[in-house]
Amino acid sequence: MDPSELYAEVIIDHQKNPRNYGELENKDKEVKLTNSSCGDEIFLQVKFDGDRIQDIAFYGRGCAISTASASIMTELVKGISKEKAEELYEKFVEMARTGKAPSSELKDARVFQGVSKYPLRVKCATLAWHALEKVIE
Amino acid sequence: MACRPESDVEKDFPILSTVFEDGRRLVYLDSAATTQKPKSVIERITHFYESENANVSRGAHKLGAIATSEYAKARETVARFIGAKPEELIFTSGTTESINAIAYGWGEENVHPSDEIVVLVSEHHSNFIPWQQLARKCGADFKIVDVKPDGTVDLDVFRKAVTSRTKIVAFAHVTNTFGVIHPVREMIEIARSKGAVTVIDGAQSIPHISTDVKEIGMDFLAFSGHKMLGPMGIGGLYISKRRVNEMRPFFTGGGMIDNVEDNFTVFAHPPEEYEAGTPNVAGAVGLATAIEYLEKLGMVCILDSDRTLLEYAYKKLDKIEGLTLYGTRDFEKRIGVLSFNIKGVHPHDVATILDAHGVAIRSGHHCAQPLMKHLGIFYTSRASFYVYNKKEDIDILVDAIKDVKERFS
Ligand SMILES: Cc1ncc(COP(=O)(O)O)c(C=O)c1O
Predict the structure, then answer these.
(1) Under an 8 A CB cutoff, do B348 and A38 touch?
(2) Which CATH number fits domain A3-136: 3.90.1010.10, 3.90.740.10, 3.30.70.1290, 3.10.350.10?
(3) Ligand 1 pocket residue status of B176, Cβ below 6 Å
(4) CB-based contact B348 A1, cutoff 8 Å
(5) I need a labelling partner for B276 at 20 to 30 A (CA). Which of A90, B10, B82, B399 fits?
(6) Whose CA is closest to A121, among B328, B347, B154?
């Protein structure tokens, strides 16, 4: 299997320069999730404006896949409604697990379509999204 | 006697001729997790199920007699391999069960409040959690002895940690993280001088180092068949004569009794006392065949080959920038385990890219979170070698590591 598909340029770029990385000054909520198979952890913080995700940030420890996925996820959901974010969450998780053609709404997150071929790495790609689902519930 | 070249040994292992869809061959460097099996072991297990399968020590028919006698022969072979008597060798499912059997069977009977249980920080979770839990249950102190950053133990620190209150000292002869060989004789001597009982996790040592339990003098030794060319689901527990009367069986049930009354049971003598239920006979005969194979290769040759490969790998990897290699550089104190990190790259990413080169390694905390946290590294990539690995495997590993570096640079 050619790893170039999994380690696409976009992913390496987000891993090196993760967006929305760090802590929010005035967060409303924070969740922490751990990937039990490797001990990686993500802290996800959000600031809400009513039903809208006004601001979002993450930090923690992770591999290229989980870091890039978190970075891309935060870009996608910043500024949208919780309901819309929940919808993206479901679409992303389904794509990562099955490899099914993703909806165009997932934008950059579509690079993770190929992760389904690496069953041990699916958890890495979905970790941040599971954290998102928890933080908006 | 000359050692067989690894490239010749490799031919005995059917799985090692695997070629993946992309034309790359399998380079198996994960033997510390589990080893591959030679044809002789696979055939022995098949032969058992095709021609000898019956339950042991129950019933009088011909197959039952064959299975019982093959099981007994297997016990003799495994016991002899570690210098024990057959009645001192219990078959278990592996190291984890063996250690739990000691913690419950000996520990709960003999550990009291204000006793101490001493382990090294570098223990595998299998030789850490059972003692941590036992200490909690019995109100004993759980003492964790530090190791040096190179993974070796400082005997002075160890000596100070073991006191007259110490009931159990448990540690691995060889660590699974960095493949460091601890000075087992000296450490046991220290423990015994304080009257402590010694439990040796031999999961990584028995496959690589010729071991004589009488000469080393431990009270308990645990090991796994699958890490020494044998099948999964079989392992050993050596219980020295000194301790056997201080124990209670961990499991009770069929096959381990002399007599059962309504209100009490008279247990059989060891080893049967500690083998409740139908044993893994196919596993036991498979393990005995694996041992015969190892003996034919020669344990000295196995350790020699480990070190040749390790030194070869170090020479090549030392030239690559941004690579950290863990464990002492005194190769006399190492088996064929190579733990490393590439600056700025997570071990899971390393493993995935190596996998694309056909190279199978392990990444993560290697079931040794206390050590990883203590050293502040969280995880490593680990390549581990065994009898079938050759220099060419290292060459492919090194090229794959270079590819990882390029992708992430
Ligand atoms: C040092 C050490 N102890 C214990 C174990 C546990 O062995 P098993 O899983 O075969 O019970 C292992 C294997 O991973 C090990 O390397």
Answers:
(1) yes
(2) 3.90.1010.10
(3) yes
(4) no
(5) B82
(6) B347
